[in-house]
Batch of 4 targets.
Target 1
Amino acid sequence: MAQLNMVQAINQALAQEMARDDRVLLLGEDVGRDGGVFRVTEGLLERFGRERVLDTPLCESGIMGAAIGMAAYGLRPVPEIQFLGFTYSAFEQLFAHAARLRSRSRGRYSCPMVVRTPYGGGIKAPELHEESTEALFCQVPGLKVVVPSGPYVAKGLLLAALRDPDPVLFLEPTRLYRLLREEVPEEEYLVELGKARVARPGSSVTVVAWGSMLERVLKAAEGYDAEVLDLLTLNPFDSEAIIASVRKTGRLVIVHEAAKTCGLGAEIAATVAEEAILHLRAPILRVTAPDVPVPLAKLIDHYLPGVQQIRTAIDDVLQY
Amino acid sequence: MPEVLLADFQVKRLEVLNEKGEADPELLPELSDAQIWRLYELMLLARIFDERAVALQREGRIGTYPPIRGQEAAQVGSAFALTKQDWLFPSFREMGAHLTLGYPIPQLLQYWGGDERSQKVPVGLNIFPFCVAVGSQIPQAAGAALAARYRRDPVAIVTYFGDGATSKGDFHEAMNLAGVFNLPLVFICQNNQWAISIPLKGQTASASLAQKAVAYGFEGVQVDGNDVFAVYRATGQAVAKARSGAGPTFIECLTYRMADHTTADDAGRYRSGEEVAFWAARDPILRLERFLERRGLWSPQKREEAAAQAAALVDAGVAEMEALPPPAATELFDEILATLTPRQAGQRKVR
């Protein structure tokens, strides 16, 4: 089995689905000739041609809007927005249209598309290239939000997203693009949307994370009897898996690289409070970025949650 | 070094029918008397539908409603050039186009009555739901045009919007996409000269909206939007061009919003009665009547008969709309996703 990084795993998923389904088209800035700024779509223009891999003008709202029209027409477009921070100019298309086209048309039209976008911090990139505002998107009914944490799940989640009948925002943690290599089967496989994964079993504390934080959480969990849940899908998130784990461990730490206030951690904590508060033996703790804009490279290590902060939180709930 | 002239452009305005009802024989579209009478019936239907909708709102029987009065030629004339295979991406003030394409009257009223179910466009009509977010339907039309071309479908994609929308980024992004990809797309701007209280000169410093197309590398034309023949002719040419793969066209229909922005607006706050009277005298229906009268096809009695037929259709539509049972609470959850999330399913259960 081949050892692939996440860039290669995503590229393979796109190529396989494009070969299988002629409704799948890619569009975005620099996705064709350049193969994408992270080279995720490298070689796909050569293989599938200009009709299926469209280098667009620089217009995020236009790209998102066009993808909606394509999807309604019966295709399965995969718009790439170069960085999550650049989706901000496409919010109206994504929130007011993609997420509610099925609802607005009472099912006459739907919007099966996968919006791919790199996200997250720690790559020494300029302003707005390292955003982690995933919770904004989770507030919008009708939109699914998926975040892989490594090459294997990236391929299976992307194939599942490409076959989903509704719009999916697929957030690709840039810090992990080439950080990890895993065995990735050549043949297709699906990782079901809406299901979390036990990344590491344990019995004394549950740690929930996703995306690039998972790698740090796994490092932090070494030496503890901690159960680490990799959420994978943020909306709808797998509350059942979290509740089941918390019932077993009685302790919960949530780790995300987004700002604390109204981050997804708040929703998870509230859900556990509603459904399993009597199983808790310690307060729920969140390890997050502070409530400030994502800084540039010189301050980023003071911003992103680190392994030591996660360990401290685990110690705190264990010793409570 | 001498300066080099990079571009020099012209913008044309198309007029076929003058105020007196005289048509230019060279430009008059090839339409039978029966087709021209149909145009007239549809414009009357649009007018009577609109008057009834405003009255229903005043009586509290529907919600806020955006009148189309004055824009009947610009809407009926353009939609009359389309087929049911073409795709329409409307804004929210083109009910005349809907009526021309055969959209059910009860369903149009149902939308303005606040019923979600009305947005399920009947199968057989490729019309997108009303788009209240100004201009955002325009890039979606560009995407459908990309898809139609990919599928080799010989259809035109048509999008309607107003003069206000031409100030928005989505309009410009879509115009640019249409030019770059040479899309089978027809942009129909209903320039009714007012975006709520902002007059055209507050939206743009351009001498016309049509000339904006020049910057995006394709043809733009202004038509007299109260001249149903000019609108029909320009739209017919543009959709034929789109279907044949020859690219996009921008049509500016210069017309006038004779009524308030919506039933919640009072246009008397920001525009003069003289201006409204000036345009009322240029009513598109009156102009077509003068043309028909010259041909011996029109009389006050024929108008009354046609108006009575249209009113009967609208009456039946109102009755059908008002007879619909209200939606059940669980319909909140209809068609949100192909499969509800576990949380949504739980929330539905307790409604």
Note: The longest helix of chain B spans residues 33-58.
Target 2
Amino acid sequence: MNFGNKLLYSTSSTALNFIIADNIITPLAYGTENNLQAVLAGQSSLHKYDNRFTPAAPFCASMFNDITCIDGYTCFESQCIKAIQGLEPKFEESILSSSDTIFIISTTKGNIDKLQDILHNEQPEYYQNLNLNTSARKIAAFFGNAAPPIVVSNACISGVCAIITAQRLLETKRYRNAIVVGADMLSLFIVSGFQSFKALSPQPCRPFDAARTGLNLGEAAAAFCITSDNKYSNKSLGTIVAASIHNDANHISGPSRTGEGSYLCLKDVLPNNKTDIAFLNVHGTATAYNDEMEAIAICRAGLQDVPINALKGYYGHTLGAAGLLETIISLHALRQGLILPTKGYNEQGTTNQINISNQLRHTDKQQFVKLLSGFGGCNAAIRIITTKEQESGKHQKNTTPNISVEGNIDITPDNVVLNNKEIHVTAHGEQMLTELYRSHINDYPKFFKMDTLSRLGFIASELLLQSAKNKNIRPDKDCAVIFANASSCIKNDTDYQRTISDAKNYYPSPALFVYTLPNIVTGEIAIRNKYYGETSFYILEKEEQLTPIVKAAMANSNIHEALVGWLECKTADNFEAHLKLIKKNEYE
Amino acid sequence: MNNELLKQQIIEALNLEDLTPEDINDDAPLFGEGLGLDSIDALELFMLLDKQYGIKLQNKEEGKQVFRSVNTMAEYIEQHRTK
């Protein structure tokens, strides 16, 4: 990755963005307005499934009854395409195919249902079916867009991260328009994993309620079109005015007891006057720990009196679609002056009292905040305004950052080069990573619990940070970890799939399942170094695609230092890491 | 119930690479300070009981009681194992 000494662009003012069209496809309804009406009617698509994914135990979820897949496309791809096709209100079709338009796809596991076929029949075309870059290309190409798309895979906050990535790339004028789409389909892989975490409720979930017993999973696809083209300012449905991503630096699956990351996100995105917020739409998964953590973060941010709602009681947790789906529904509710009821909620079940209700409420305010958190300790928030007048954004920067590279490391199965100097190793592949752990670190037994991708990232980051100790690198709330690769978690996905493939030997491993999210490695590094800054993971075709994403992140956030780069692991003997430690030096 | 065998199974299931059965006291708490185990380790112990001994614990609360120490685990296995 080449950062040079200066940014390629020299914008001193940031561009405004306008959400001009959106769409939601759920088992409840097709189209945003139909979904909003269904929610207002109190409907829920949560049902019990007894034998849907045997040998998984019965579960309660929101699932499409029958999906018609487009010929030549997987179900996941088809749902993304349908979500984009149905974007309303209609806009000039040339936006879709324009070279000024970037497609950003949000998903946690994409085509993971295809992995079973690969294990049964190791044909290269099956790997193609699984690969998220292939899917992203097919989706963009369906609409005549030839630019390499971006896939955001940041666990349950992916949807909001995709929105933030779009907003940043527009603000830095790298692109003029973005099509953001999020989707996930349920499968034995996902259901068994959440069951192994004992996170699923056998009943429809009850966010923030005293009797809540866990979450429900859900299928959905949601999309929107966002532009910085001023000619659309009159058609704007809403504008993203603030965005933030922070890590808890606490645990890869357990929410922080202090709500650290969510609190930092809220603090970043709140307006000067908190009472300007109509409502805060939260994650509200209805697990004991998530809702408790969010209530703590809400109170710490001083939002105990602001109306709160959560939508999981209607749709379940729709994973990679959740951030988009919940943002779009919230946006359209607010445009009608409505604060949607929290279905399933009855009696406050968190230690901290928050302003939540199962009744429809009304508001004349014009902005809301969307909050999410996810595995890997990541949290994200955005604030959206529906009016045309823009406030003077507190996050709009008046300076253009200069980014300096403070160190770099390259690791392949036989070779380690730190700051252009080779480190002597004798072992090969995964054993070489263990050798480096023993010779250079040796004080962090959690290393042995990590999957190979995380071990690779951990070793690379440790060596890099050790070498930079004297360079005034300050770990804190604005240190970020931003990685990308082309194959997501293919090695660990395969290891996990083996624990569920044989019905007679069906023992889904929670420790393997958690590492099937590629962003877990960013969480591991955040925990180790107490980095409370942004942690993000992208699936890209090529390493160079990450550079503009990182530059846009550095230009439009508080991040002042970051570990960034390419982290790929296909097998125990086939991996590569190319990481850099970068620093932002602001100047006028 | 052979405590040494159980300790070996725990070490393998939880990837406690730097530990040997001798490092784990029969009565010492498994969670908290002791071995530094976390919530994912607890979930893996549920899986270990199911896989090795055919025991399906119902909920996390039950797990907390059973997983207090190697001794409490061994006792529970002795009484409830189906294989």
Note: Chain B touches chain A at residues 14-18, 36, 38-41, 43-44, 46-47, 50-51, 59-60 (CB under 8 Å).
Target 3
Amino acid sequence: MTSAMAAYARRRDSMVRQVVTPEGVDLRLEIGSAGARLAALAIDFFLQALVIITFVIIFGLAGLNGGGAVRDIAGIGIMLGIFLLTNFWFIGFELGPRAATPGKRLLGLRVVARDGGQLSVASVVSRNFVRQLEILLPVQFMMSGMGDVLGAATALLGLVWTLGLGCFLLFNRDRMRLGDLIAGTWVVQARRHRIAREITEDVLEEPSDGPVFTHAELAVYGVFELQELERVIRTGDLQRKILVADTIRAKLGRPLVEDDMLFLVSFYRQLKAKQERDLLFGKRRADKNSELQ
Amino acid sequence: MADVIYSTAAFRHEHEGEWQAFEALCNRLEGWAFRRISDEELLALPRLYRATLSSLSIARATSLDAALIDYLEGLATRGYFLIYGVRESRRARLAAFFRYDWPAAVKGLWRETLIVFAVLALGIALSWWLVASDANWYHALMPEGMVQGRGPDASVAELRATIFGTAPEDRAGLHFFATFLFTNNASVAINAFALGFAFGVPTLLLIFYQGLSTGPMLFVFAKAGLLTDFVGWLSIHGTTEIFAIIIAGAAGLRIGTGFAFPGARSRMEAAAQAGRDSGAAMIGVLLMLALAGLLEGFARQLVQQTALRYAIGGALLLFWCSYFYLPRRRSGVGVGTK
């Protein structure tokens, strides 16, 4: 199980890119995953369709009920509205202060310039106009050629085209679409984390009936296990907590005497305090398989 | 644990207020309320940002609380992009676009523009020659929808009717027609741009194809002795529209050549630079096409004298050329060139 976790951590690390601010701090931006990108695109298309349909219904009703001039204006409104919505939905949102469409915001993504600098209007326009080639053009092919044999061939070609260009993103480390390549951009994770309560908040009021661990017992794990334990305490379900508590007890050779949650929190607090103290002396142990160094 | 003087809990208690103040400020700046930010808050922004960055560095070095580090990383990233992401107001960027970026982007594409123009001219000349040598070529080259009574068998009067005069009932729909033309042309331009990706070849083919369908038409009108009138009818909007399509093709070609011939830079850098250069030009292309749509929809039907049509079309061509290509002092750095 732990080797799978370590592999996961390594994979996560391989998606982190260095962006150093002028103040000299590395922001460690994490490239957004292909799945998140696809989901964001789907959400955007869905919302776009929803807005367009509402728009057409409102203008269409106005046009049908009104006279000649109103009908004319409604026709222009629909045509211009669809054009603007399809071409400028992505551009407009990505130029905002969050640099993300609603879909990207929901998935916790944002567009950034690869050099960490200003995201220019021209970049955003280029990256989104290229989407025309990646998705909309083959879709047009497919739509136009339905019915006959030649049409089916064109549709197949369009499908292969879209799949080929869409998968371009999977074949580079930075998960860049063709548009990102052209515009010099990356799509990175920009999740908003709420500030979480510290598990070791009340160090001095540690309950007296909590178990106390010896130095040797605290020395079996490294930073990786500590942070996995933190994750389990914060977000894991009861089943998982019990499983983890039993695993630790077995490792330490302790009998089951106290409540699982109390055991986990006490162990976490003392392990963290010990490792942070080591850290202050410049000693860090990456995980249980490595040495303290 | 009383012997530990520094503790991450104490560090957190000491700085948590700063982080939350910065987070609240970021929330307001990212929302659309940034006009209501007071001077004090604006002055506090860089201070809080640096405090957060410094906290992040300390936390990374001393804390093993992953949730805390995640929170600070997220906050620092948001702050970084708020502070360094946009350095000018929207109005300043808009002004810079019209004064500098747009003409500079188009001017920077001059080589590609000439190539695309040559390809278009070649298409026109070739199709003219083909139709002149054998009239059957006309139907092979022209898409059915574009003929509209302008075939090689049409009489002079019929041809004349297509370029002069419109029935009064048509005028009511002019703005509808203008909108249709604009959205249609804009889609062609965006396609021409995006197709540049495959080393520019599909873009050139698209442009060549446009030329192929123009030449036969010119030939038919020339044979009827209406060439000057027909070109006038075309030029009133055509100088703007064709120019815009040529620029879109040139922008697409720039992307393709950026990939194929990156020069001294890396292929990635060259592609990114090409994208930035051509992106600004493409915004301009859409503006030009909007104007061309208006001219085509309204002016072409309302202005019936060939001389006046030439005057309008020629004046616009002169305007675009001088706007794009006359040397000017560089007035600022902005959208197109970063």
Note: DSSP finds 15 helices and no strands in chain B.
Target 4
Amino acid sequence: MEGINSNKSLAEVENGIIEDFSMYEEWLDKYEYLIDLGKNLEPYPESARTEDRLIKGCQSRVWLDSKFEDGKLYFAADSDAIITKGIISLLISVYSGRTPQEILSSDFSFIDKIGLKENLSPTRSNGLVSMISTIKALALEKSNV
Amino acid sequence: MNVNELRNFFPALETEIFGKKLVYFDNAASSQRYIRAVKRQEDLSLHCNANIHRAVHKLSADATEEYESTRNAVKDFLNASSREEIVFTSGTTNSINLVAFSFGETFIHEGDEIVVSEAEHHSDIVPWQMLCSRKNAVLKVIKVDDNGILDIDSLTSALSERTRIVAVTHISNVLGLVNPVREIISICHSKGIPVLIDGAQGIVHQRVDVQELDCDFYAFSGHKIYASTGTGVLYGKKKWLEAMIPYMGGGEMIDHVSFSGTTYAPLPGKFEAGTQNFNSIPTLKDSIELFKLLQDNELKLYCDKVSSFMYDALTSDSRIKLYGVPCGTVSKIPLYSITVKGVHHEDLALLLDKMGIATRSGQMCAEPLMDRFGVTGMLRISLAPYNTMEEAQYFIKCLDKAIAMLS
């Protein structure tokens, strides 16, 4: 459970992702890239694959583990669906290893900017939506510590 | 009539999705709208909009005529014995909840039993569970086998002296198999037990004659048969509807109101409390007319060809498992719920969407059935008569591509 891009600011990582995705004109190419990211997601620790870390949905399921260390939040996550794993990989690269204040400064709009808003619509019953609310809630909770 | 002529009645089929021509294969969730139904609803909203039944003015009389003539049309469509047996609702869910409440409050007591099948949609499970918890009654479940075929023996053993009603689907929205509802009804009736048929999918694919079936209740929605959303029908045998207490109280459903006591309107008004969906219900007349067109031989043969192609393509691919396998006298509608080895249903649906194909993924409002087959969800492809062979071929090609991308 590491911060992958700790040497860059959160906004820089977000902008980098937006730039990466702007190279793909075709929707399927975008998804192919996400699938690749999903396949290469850092393996989720088996010890953390527990019922209380599982977010169930009508669609994909998401396991989310987090820890707060030295003022920073770290996330590890997994899903049974590969595209969801790809999006998880993006979220982790942006938000893992950040201070609560940094996370709270993000409006999570890069997801929208790369055209994946529909995957994260609150009305959609999947684990990703809950994953984002959990990241936000944890950041808020820890910022008050 | 050929399929292209039929497609002209459904302008939504010309929509583009992500720069691709829409292939609409989510018809079991909701069909596309028939242009004449859309036009009728618009026309009624613009030129014939007035609350029905009570007012004496011309506009109200015309709106009432549109609404009540629909009841006659539905009565004839289902071959019900009287128009009092046709209750308009907002959809199948509403129809079943009405029965679960009104029949339940009238006839179900502590320790009584209600029987459903494990292939039911949540809408034919949860209202009965709610009834059971209100009344301390017991919900019993009929099984399906590995092919999805309803186990008649398990029905027989589920029935007891305490069984008060059996509720089963005509065609499961996941399995697409036509249940032997006549046989089920006759078994239940031989023990004096009434039967509700969830016809949400059945009405789309079977010609329903409620007298021939002898069902006690038949519930369906308009939006799955090309009519407006928010329209639905409950057919109920007069003897039950008359004996049942009302579902909701309010305007329209009363005969006489005073603080010392209220009497209720005769059927079917007793079950139609409040302002009805009078701009939309009449679109059911257009659906009924459309069904006559769909009887066209050329169209039927074409649909059969497309269905066989889909079935053969999906069952000949060893990576794909199809749920709901027809056998013997049990036939299947063009509805295919599948899983693909090592590939998640949501991923498939997302990629197909990007190729312009609308399918459904997930639990399909049938969680117990997903548990029965040990899966977290499925991908469902459901066709309508306006779907073409080219679309089916394109789908099979895209499915193959999506599986390759995800494997």
Note: Residues 38-289 of chain B form a domain with the Aspartate Aminotransferase; domain 2 fold (CATH 3.40.640.10).
